[in-house]
Amino acid sequence: MAGDQMENASYQLLVGGLRLLAWCLGLLLPVLDGVFTAVLVLYRATYNIAYQLSFRWNRDSAAGEPMDDYLPRAKGDLPQEAYTYVSLPSERHIRILQLKQPSVSGLRSSVIECDLLLVPLNKPSLISSYRAISYSWDGQSFDRYILCGGKKLAITKNCEDILRHMLRHARLFIWIDAICINQGSPEEKAIQVPLMTEIYGRAYLVNVWLGLPTEGTGLVFSYVWLFWCCSCFPEPAKTWLTRRLHGIIAARGHTPYFLDMLHRSWWRRVWTIQESVLAPDSSWSSMCPLLVNCGRFEMPMDCLAIALLDFSSSHKLYQEDTYIYNYTTWAYLVTCHLDRRAFSRSEPSLDLLLFRCRACHVTEPKDRIYGLYGVLERLGIRLSEVDYNKTKEQVYLEFTREACQATNSLSLLNLVAGSNNTATSATIPRQPSWVPDYGGPYRMGDNWASSGLRASSGLVPDFHFSIDGRVLRTVGVLVDTIKEKTTTTIWQPSGDPALVEDGDLVSLEWGFLQTVRAYREWNELFEKHIDTLWVTYGSSCEGVVRALKKVLTLRQQACYPPAAMYAWMHLIDKRQDRSGAFMEANWRLERRKDFKEHRLRSWFRFMMTSGQDEEEWQTLCALKMCPKASDLNHAIWMHNADRQLFVTKRGFLGSANMSIREGDAIFVLSGVDRPMILRPQGTDPNLWTILGPAYIDGMMEGQLWDPGNLQLVSII
């Protein structure tokens, strides 16, 4: 009995001790978390304050310099003998540019003098000796000259600006591709490109050059500092302070200064993505491994990226007459800033990365692959040797095959957008249809690469390539066939799709006939097959309309209430009277106290005075002005560029690119997250070409995946 009591007492004591320990930990963990957060904030604050003080010192010391002549050009006689590159001793050597410091009085007028040092890449002292430069060539001509080893070397204006900036700050050892790589030697470029990972990763830090400053550059950098300070506060103070800061920017008319920063060409280059991702990690000797320069103004990239992301997402709140949303810039900011963290967690998405790169520009199409060589290495993709003598088609084909094999994934099929099987010339064979065009247009409607779809129930792909590497063999399930499709797509402005203005004020009026007619053709197809769709989607009006909304918005339907879809369908129906919705919107806007500042004011006045009497024009006006339908209408327009709707034989509703035909087959391929549209080739029942992915409501979550009906699929 006494033993039981002793055992019970011991048990109670143990339980009590554990509870006390848990209680103490419960108190300590928030404290430790708070201390850790405080240390991080203090660390970053100290670092930012140091840069702010340095920036103000430089600004004050250069206050007398005219802004438009900040970095004057070199003048004077130059030797006639041109510089000749010395061959690199080995494939592991690089060149480091050593600038010669002129006298203070001659800094702004003398010709830049330098030497090129041949250095082995694995030299221990190299890590702390040079800065790698990331900049945009901007298509400039080589019409400026420096003295390299006492001989004349042609460079671009942008390159000269960078060198003078580095001289001003006594940064004498740098690596810059235009000079440190012999641009006239494709063989040397092929050797140096694979070394980019180490060149940027071993640098003391990477300097990003956005160009020379303009009138408002200093204000932008000051606002960025304030954005960073706001981000250090907890919610809801962070949100409130950020909104107040947006209001101040708008009230003072400083929005154009931010737009100038967003429109810098550096944001729109493929090479700069790699250069940012490959920058060295933070260390105590270099708290900011990625430093942005705009003339004499400096800012850590992470601070600038956070501020510009916030500005871009909130831009529509205070743009009065236009809504400029540069998707190229947005794509790059997300890629360089967020994907650096994704790489550290080994979670990047290859197809999403390459999709975003479509928004960026290259001079050489092959650089859409070679410009990401180092990034792809981090993904575990070992590419063939860089060879600029290969055709673009050869580079794309080899990369696609090697990437699929290295990642054991067919996710790159998500980027296929139509048949590529046309011969480029008599000597170059046609490109296999499974090879995406990585230089294809950037379409917002294709931005559903990482949405977690599971059309094949999340299985691991089962595939291999033919001996010659041109046929992709896999297995899949033939689930349906396209029965009927539309023929009209919405109007899109000409020019670079990534730079197209969009938003509530997008200039749809220039293509209102095509846009409204496409809407109506979609609606007519929907109504024609309503009985079949009714059976497929649950025998309810709500289920059928929800399916249409999911197809038109590519799964973004949760952002828009059901009433918005009903209003949109009502307004595009030519049999309906839209005057009520139009007048209601007019009445609501006129009653708003802030109507003079309302974002629709200028467009509304243009609409009222345009004198257009076409019925389609009235439809567009109603769609723009209806509070319920306007946001949904914009989303539909953005997500359906170069897409068309179709109905399948089994009664499913979907959308795909413009290359599909009635009778094309719908497959769910093993390990592929979306249904694919395939077209039979010849008499072989297993031979197909692929036309690209489709969004089909009712097939995206593996509902039709049936392992018992697998068949061999050979895609040419």
Write up this protein.
The structure is a single chain. With 716 residues, the chain is an alpha+beta fold. Among the domains are: 29-63; 93-209, no CATH class; 391-489 and 642-716, no CATH class; 500-640, no CATH class. The protein contains 23 helices and 18 strands. The strands form 2 sheets. Strands 5-4-2-1-6-3-7-8-9 form a 9-stranded mixed sheet. A hairpin with a 2-residue loop joins β4 and β5 (151-155). Residues 130-275 form the Heterokaryon incompatibility domain. Keywords: Membrane, Transmembrane, Transmembrane helix. It holds the Pfam family HET. The chain crosses the membrane at residues 20-43, 204-228.
The helix content, as a percent range, equals 40-55%
Principal-axes shape call: globular
* Uncertain stretches: 59-75, 317-327, 420-428, 501-506, 589-603
Radius of gyration: 30 Å
Strand content: 5-15%
* Biggest sheet record: 9 strands, mixed
Q: What's the β-strand tally?
A: 18
Helix tally equals: 23
N→C terminal distance? 84 Å
**Mean pLDDT score, rounded?**
78
Arrangement of strands in the largest sheet: 5-4-2-1-6-3-7-8-9
Report the structural category: alpha+beta
Transmembrane segments: 20-43, 204-228
Keywords: Membrane, Transmembrane, Transmembrane helix
Organism: Gaeumannomyces tritici (strain R3-111a-1)
Protein name: Heterokaryon incompatibility domain-containing protein
